[in-house]
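Objective 1b: paired records.
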Amino acid sequence: MRRDKAWWARLTKDERASLVYLEYCNAHSYGGHSAYLPDDCYECPGCSQPGMGSGLCNDCDRELVHLIAKGNGEAPNAG
């Protein structure tokens, strides 16, 4: 769906900020590798939670999908 003024108006100010941040982190994959983690682990670029693999953790990915659906008018307001 096109992100026009009405699309953004479905989200609160904090939700808009979270959406932009999570999309930025997901696109740039700024996940880090801490010296305190084993070599096969990483830190989520969105929340720094340790995890396996790469990209956003499950919680951040779920939040990103929810915010996009809410902007599209497909999700309930409760998160």
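Objective 1b, second protein:
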Amino acid sequence: MPKLAFPLARTSFYRTLGPIVEAALEDSSWEVELILGLPVPAGDLKSYQNPTLDNVPARFKGRCKTRMVFTTEEMAAALNEADAVFANVGPSCVAYELSDRVRNPVWCAVFDADHSVLPAHHFDEAEMNFWASRYYLDWAVEVGLASREHLEARSYEIGYVRADPLKWSTREAVRREWRIDQDRPVVLYIPDGYRLSLNSAFITDWYRYVWCVESRAERLLRALLFRRNRQAVREALNGAGSDAEMIRALRAFCDSNGARLVMMPRRQKEWSGSSAFTAEELKAADFIVSEDEAHPQTTLRAIQMADLVICGYASGALLDALAAGVPYITIGMPFAANSLENELYAQRFNREQGDRPGATWLIPAEDFIRNFPGKSLSDFKIDPVVLDQVRAQYVGPVDGQCSRRLLEAVRTRLDGQGARKEPARRILHQDV
């Protein structure tokens, strides 16, 4: 019986790997093991995501082997017992030394989000790459992950595995579970991930001292105290909107459309101390999602039960909305708000999946503040033809079978090479 190993460095990895684990557990011809680690030290920004034997998803407890590992040596030994390894990254992204030490299994790198195309995620090291669609393979070649010949030989287009759980629930079931009215429209808001953390890797001083501050007097004071240049003073005195005004515009839209405003919490790493929301967000929300599950993923379930999703930044949640067939709006921040790296990503997002009216819409923040309260839910209706086109490009088939297609491809690979008899050739950085 072929053995499948799933290294899980963070609980968030269950979002992508969980549906594959689920599909493998439904097939008695596979042996499944979850390998938890390597844990990051307490106090690290992401230490709250350390996987443990206690926080394994309830759907998996008692159904498969699970072990904790604490060193690279333990991780390598555990993975070498498997016939195939499933991860959302290449081996050296789990731990650099694994490229040399993990020799027996076929390494399967599974698309997680846009970042999967980047060289830092090392898909080039895996024997099998599983992409949601052809778009991401082409993008990986474009950004220099590896040559097209190298990637073509190991790439499979199987769909967006994170969307498989959509088949396990319904809009009505999620609303019933969360006690949300069935007969009123619901607008789901996914907050800007930078608003509270103010991470300078993503945002600028303009964002910090203008967008996050509503009072012009306070903006001017901050310009004089912290920024100390004429440009800062001009920006402080201009009529630019603010985050608080944007939330009030969102609330006004919901009121005029008789909709409930449901608020998703930020990820803990994006909090400010113990706060996951701004005061304006708490004031505006009718309902705050308290569930926080990686598998089945809470964000996907929240999107599934909504009539419209609005997100305060360029987010991968758009892929979940496309899969669920729910209209999705991105509020576009101005150039002045984003760091250079973030702006380059936002520009690509905006001209690609971010603005495909009939499925997704991009509304600049200033326009959102000025005009959105007067809009109607009917202005953001799904066009089935557009949705099909955009889905095909960015998420692939949405049929709940992506994980099964992936496993069948792996089975064919293992049967062809003789599982565990002929160790797969490792693909190292220097091969590229």
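The two ends are 34 Å apart (CA to CA). The chain has two domains: 3-160+397-431, 166-204+240-394.
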